[in-house]
């Protein structure tokens, strides 16, 4: 008699869509009296504080917050408009709000995206919990807020306003509902993730990562030495004069974007700038005329055409440069070359890289982690390029500590990579 067939696993229930905040859409806090009431309510609340920000990435130059969402048990959700509190200054000062919640744990999702804009208005945490980073440490396949809420709580949130222009005023009601929902379930999500971290033996790792985020929350964002070299298609520009044209046009666009507070790509696209560099290559001169410039796609956009004199001035500056002032074909920076070029430039480093990278990737897989969360790619490259003179475990541990690796990372990585760093 054959064994009975095992019934298939039941199909999981579909996530429950949540489109409206449980307590309704809160009013926007945009007056001093309303802010004072919000501070009083948050002070009277209990437990951790959920926060989020909405920016205008792709629309504005400056990455400031145009809405700050705050929620705490016993207090409800508050939607704060920082723009209303600027009072002629470039940034609002919400440090009084921080005083009401500084002693509590702040819960954010993808904190590195929100912390710079929160710091600009005087909101810096003393403790935090990052649900996105925690999801990565758990090795979850999807760590977006919506995916985590579906997995943890069986609910789904609409994300259709995530890429909206949040500098719009007044903010539409549907956008405000979306913003309020982003913090409504963060406390419950945090509790679920903490239990998962503890069960996986990774809670101490997460605590070290969160402490590291807090320690660097007020740091200035890193700016590349030559950001113009990120222009798409730059590899096709062959002459130093063409590169100079790209540099001057990029700088002129960036200056204008700051003045107008517009995303640079909405003024003039990168491809148009590199096409101008190619035109300089062909003409063997950066003194491109108005007619030539207008034949390049992008320079006839409405906003770009309004500032045509700036582009012509930029090209004139590039044309007037001496040979010694022209940019080199390759960037002269302290950044390491890409590992694919190491075999020629530093064969010993290339050999070390081929030994330690697979080992670290295998260790990450064993620990259920993305490799970049086990050890930053930059730290791994620098270790391979220039290992410490002392390649004992103690020496490698000190080297990785200097590269900002956390203790839990070093405890896992050092025993694996130290034996592989010796060239003997």
Description:
A hairpin with a 2-residue loop joins strand 4 and strand 5 (76-80). This protein folds into three domains: 16-215, Ribonuclease H-like superfamily/Ribonuclease H (Nucleotidyltransferase, domain 5), CATH 3.30.420; 227-325, Orthogonal Bundle (DNA polymerase, domain 1); 339-420, HRDC domain (DNA polymerase, domain 1). It is flat. By secondary structure, it is of the alpha/beta class. The strands form two sheets. A six-stranded mixed sheet has the order 2-5-4-3-6-7, sandwiched between helices. Helix 4 packs parallel to helix 7, helix 15 runs antiparallel to helix 17 (377-385) and helix 18 packs across helix 19 (407-417). It has helices at 32-44, 95-101, 111-120, 131-137, 145-153, 173-184, 186-200, 203-215, 240-260, 270-283, 290-294, 302-306, 308-320, 342-345, 347-367, 371-374, 377-385, 393-402, 407-417, and strands at residues 16-18, 28-29, 46-54, 67-73, 76-80, 105-108, 127-130, 155-157. The longest helix is centred in the middle third of the chain and has 21 residues, at 240-260. It is built from 19 helices and eight strands. It comes from Propioniciclava soli. Residues 1-27 are annotated as: Disordered. Residues 1-18 have a biased composition (Pro residues).
């Amino acid at each position: 008699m054959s064994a009975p067939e095992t019934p298939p696993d039941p199909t999981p229930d579909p996530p429950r869509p949540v489109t409206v905040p449980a307590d309704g859409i809160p009013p926007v806090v945009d007056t001093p009296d309303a802010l004072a009431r919000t501070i009083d309510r948050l002070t009277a609340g209990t437990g951790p504080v959920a926060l989020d920000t909405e920016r205008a990435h792709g629309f504005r130059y400056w990455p400031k917050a145009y809405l700050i969402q705050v929620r705490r048990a016993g207090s409800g959700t508050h939607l704060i408009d920082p723009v209303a509190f600027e009072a002629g200054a470039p940034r609002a000062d919400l440090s009084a709000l921080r005083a009401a919640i500084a002693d509590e744990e702040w819960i954010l999702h993808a904190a590195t995206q929100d912390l710079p804009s929160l710091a600009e208005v005087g909101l810096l945490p003393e403790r935090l919990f990052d649900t996105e980073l925690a999801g990565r440490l758990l090795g979850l396949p999807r760590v977006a807020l919506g995916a985590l809420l579906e997995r943890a709580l069986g609910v789904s949130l609409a994300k259709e306003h995530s890429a909206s222009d949040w500098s719009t005023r007044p903010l539409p009601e549907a956008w405000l509902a979306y913003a309020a929902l982003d913090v409504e379930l963060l406390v419950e999500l945090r509790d679920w993730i903490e239990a998962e971290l503890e069960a996986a033996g990774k809670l101490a790792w997460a605590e070290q990562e969160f402490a590291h985020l807090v320690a660097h929350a007020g740091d200035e964002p890193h700016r590349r030495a030559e950001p113009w070299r990120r222009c798409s298609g730059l590899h096709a520009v062959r002459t130093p004069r063409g590169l100079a044209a790209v540099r001057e046009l990029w700088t002129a666009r960036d200056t204008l974007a700051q003045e107008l507070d517009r995303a640079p790509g909405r003024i003039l696209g990168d491809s148009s700038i590199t096409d101008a560099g190619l035109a300089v290559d062909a003409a063997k001169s950066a003194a491109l005329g108005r007619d030539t410039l207008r034949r390049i796609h992008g320079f006839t956009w409405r906003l770009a055409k309004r500032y045509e004199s700036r582009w012509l001035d930029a090209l004139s500056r590039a044309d007037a440069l001496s040979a010694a002032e022209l940019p080199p074909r390759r960037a002269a920076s302290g950044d390491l070359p890409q590992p694919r070029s190491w075999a020629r430039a530093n064969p010993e480093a290339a050999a070390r890289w081929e030994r330690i990278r697979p080992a670290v990737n295998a260790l990450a897989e064993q620990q259920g982690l993305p490799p970049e969360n086990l050890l930053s790619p930059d730290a791994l490259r620098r270790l391979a390029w220039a290992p410490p003179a002392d390649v004992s475990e103690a020496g490698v541990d000190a080297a990785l500590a200097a590269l900002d690796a956390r203790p839990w990372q070093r405890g896992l990585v050092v025993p694996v990579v130290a034996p592989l760093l010796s060239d003997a």
